[in-house]
Amino acid sequence: MERYLCWGVLCLLGIGLLQINAFEVEIKNGTNETCIFARMNVSFTIQYETINNTSNNVTFVAPDKVTTEGSNCDFNLLNVHFGNNHSWSLNFTKNGTLYRGDVLTFTYNTNDTELFPDAKRLGLLTSVTRESFFTPVPLNAFYKCVHDDVITTDNVVQLYWNVTLQAYVQNSTLGNESRCSADTPTTPVPTTPVPTTPNVTMPSTTATPPKPTPKPVDKPTTGNYSVSNTTAVCLLVSIGVQFNASMLEDKNVWTVINLNPNSTSSGSCGNDSALLILNDGNTTIVEFHFYLVNGKFHLQEVNVTLTNGSVFFRRSNVNMTLWEAPLGSSYLCRKEQLINVSEDLSINTFDVRVQPFGVGKGGTFDTAFECRLDDDSILIPIIVGAALSAEDCLSVENFTVPIVVGAALGGLVIIVMVVYFIGRRNRRTAGYENFQ
Ligand SMILES: *[C@@H]1O[C@H](CO)[C@@H](O)[C@H](O)[C@H]1NC(C)=O
Ligand SMILES: *[C@@H]1O[C@H](CO)[C@@H](O)[C@H](O)[C@H]1NC(C)=O
Ligand SMILES: *[C@@H]1O[C@H](CO)[C@@H](O)[C@H](O)[C@H]1NC(C)=O
Ligand SMILES: *[C@@H]1O[C@H](CO)[C@@H](O)[C@H](O)[C@H]1NC(C)=O
Ligand SMILES: *[C@@H]1O[C@H](CO)[C@@H](O)[C@H](O)[C@H]1NC(C)=O
Ligand SMILES: *[C@@H]1O[C@H](CO)[C@@H](O)[C@H](O)[C@H]1NC(C)=O
Ligand SMILES: *[C@@H]1O[C@H](CO)[C@@H](O)[C@H](O)[C@H]1NC(C)=O
Ligand SMILES: *[C@@H]1O[C@H](CO)[C@@H](O)[C@H](O)[C@H]1NC(C)=O
Ligand SMILES: *[C@@H]1O[C@H](CO)[C@@H](O)[C@H](O)[C@H]1NC(C)=O
Ligand SMILES: *[C@@H]1O[C@H](CO)[C@@H](O)[C@H](O)[C@H]1NC(C)=O
Ligand SMILES: *[C@@H]1O[C@H](CO)[C@@H](O)[C@H](O)[C@H]1NC(C)=O
Ligand SMILES: *[C@@H]1O[C@H](CO)[C@@H](O)[C@H](O)[C@H]1NC(C)=O
After folding, report:
1. Ligand 4 proximity of 103 Cβ (cutoff 6 Å)
2. Is the CB–ligand 7 distance for residue 162 below 6 Å?
3. Which of 405, 338, 329, 337 is nearest to 374 (CA)?
4. Which ligand is closest to the CA of 195, given by its number?
5. What is the pTM of this model?
6. What is the CA radius of gyration of the chain?
7. How far is it, in rounded angstroms, from Cα 312 to Cα 328?
8. Which residue's alpha carbon is at the smallest distance from atom 11 of ligand 5?
9. What are the tens digits of pLDDT across the range 74-121?
10. How far, in Å, CA of 248 to CA of 260, rounded?
11. Where are the alpha helices (DSSP H) in 29-170?
């Protein structure tokens, strides 16, 4: 009974402490620029073996006074020391346009007799977890989570709350907020403004079309993008990009977003793969991943990150074969094309010209390898059908028109013939009747 009372008092004390302690650290590089910022509350509950071979638990909170020796901008490493030689470290890793915590190490010192008066094993013990700290957030955004987040390892339970954290900080200023899912209400707040790059249509919530509906939104403006390696331009793209997304608002509401043609481009050029990242610096990031196989390049992977307020959505299609053309040429398609990224996101592209490999010294496009849709001679439905199966260019309106016209004409011919023969037959029958 006394023991329980004691635990209760400790708990109350603990809760009291929980509300006070939060540490805040800022890691700077050689030129005094911040690369990592962190403000968080964290408590540790450690189960340890006592000298009497029993198990005991101790809970303590990281204090607000901490030191940061060992932290390093070059290694994207945050190292925090507190109390009697306890420490906590986290390094970060970035991947494309996102970053996350990589290895989280908590080290506690059982020689600390205040916390571990009866510990059997004395010394520094560590608890290591990988990629558990937070879901990836976009670069130049900070992770924020007011709600509790628990990380459990064999002997240690770490409880985090009210966390604000950014790595890869640019210009010593925090970026946009990226909230953890626990903080975001499950029902989307209808008042949140939607990213409106050039213009956005928002069908009313009462009308609930299950699929993207024809949208009265302007064609996106074509942007010209390039990626350079150390010596020259190695990837060239000219394209108009339009997103059709149903996850930003209600899931039945499709929002059309045109990519700002002033988006910045980045990426990389390799021998057999190349990456183009377009970032409007605000709400939209799209990544195109090209591969070179048997002397032909194609678009294989598209990753899109859209942000609505502090919530971001990432969608990918990693298994496509689009925009295929031989090495040494560029791929050209003036007509609208559809890329299905996920159930709730598709992309329409306009006036595509891409050359992800082998851009010459002049930094200009090589000969265009034109998608078959652009060939206006395709008007006969049969040929269109053949082209459709053989061609990667899957367009919408431009196909349906000739198909519908062709089908209608064919149907008309058949109807006229049927009517003609029936008419003839009836006339003849009538004649026989007259004879009888
Ligand atoms: C770094 O910046 C802080 C405040 O911004 C300033 O007090 C400090 O002197 C600077 N240190 C160096 C080495 O420039
Ligand atoms: C552990 O054992 C010692 C004697 O060996 C005893 O004095 C002490 O009270 C025990 N502690 C607990 C928590 O049982
Ligand atoms: C210590 O914590 C562990 C896990 O958090 C729990 O299973 C165990 O019952 C606790 N032990 C005591 C003595 O409170
Ligand atoms: C993080 O640190 C661990 C060792 O603590 C190391 O193995 C890992 O490669 C580091 N990750 C990055 C991205 O530097
Ligand atoms: C990026 O993420 C993918 C999977 O999400 C992984 O396969 C790849 O190794 C990661 N790259 C780096 C550099 O971490
Ligand atoms: C795109 O997303 C997929 C799946 O999440 C991932 O495996 C891949 O590494 C991403 N590609 C890039 C270039 O980040
Ligand atoms: C979270 O941190 C902010 C800023 O440090 C503080 O104002 C706020 O009261 C904290 N909230 C909770 C629930 O601890
Ligand atoms: C950082 O500052 C430079 C110059 O002040 C500016 O050109 C750049 O856009 C800034 N970058 C960010 C991410 O704010
Ligand atoms: C970012 O998006 C918001 C919301 O649509 C918009 O109000 C703001 O002007 C945009 N900022 C930039 C720099 O494009
Ligand atoms: C966006 O579209 C709405 C409705 O179609 C229109 O009223 C508004 O003027 C447009 N805004 C811009 C900037 O074109
Ligand atoms: C793009 O930048 C140009 C020049 O800075 C500007 O005139 C134009 O309005 C911008 N377009 C958009 C869609 O922001
Ligand atoms: C990609 O698609 C091809 C054929 O469409 C299929 O054979 C392959 O298994 C797919 N790969 C993945 C990773 O989904």
Report:
1. yes
2. yes
3. 337
4. 9
5. 0.48
6. 31
7. 38
8. 95
9. 999 999 999 999 999 999 999 888 999 999 999 999 999 999 999 999
10. 18
11. none
